[in-house]
Amino acid sequence: MNHQHASNRRQNNTRSEGLLWSILRGQQLCGLKFRREHPIDPWIVDFACVAKSLVVEIDGGYHDGKIDDDLRRQRDLESRGWKVVRFTDQEVEQDAEAVARGIAAAIEMEYSFDPRLKTGSGARSIRARKPKPK
């Protein structure tokens, strides 16, 4: 799959993917950078933290008929050194914080969440100037 396909998927994410992305974006979760709809050829994964070789997948109802395909894909990713964690769309929508805590636990990190400033696209540069605790 190509990078254009991944870009198209980023623009058409599901409700649960959008909710989880609001937690993962901007290095809010444990200070980690996550990528959304990230290509790992031949696959496109929902979320990836390259630094931790972590893939986060959200399974919706449509996955019920794709269990064998999902398992084959997961085995392939794991054989290449990626850790794959899966959550259902219901888990994300019912308790997104618990899912975030599960992601941190999967990579054996203490959970921390540092919300982005609500200033739009300039949030990154403003956040960079925020004094760091000593």
TrEMBL record:
InterPro entries, per database record: DUF559, Endonuclease_DUF559_bact, Restrct_endonuc-II-like
SUPFAM superfamilies reported for this sequence: Restriction endonuclease-like
Record keyword Secreted present: no
Domain (DUF559) ranges: 3-107
Entry keywords, A to Z: Endonuclease, Hydrolase, Nuclease
Molecular function GO labels: endonuclease activity
Keyword Nuclease: yes
Protein name listed in UniProt: Very-short-patch-repair endonuclease
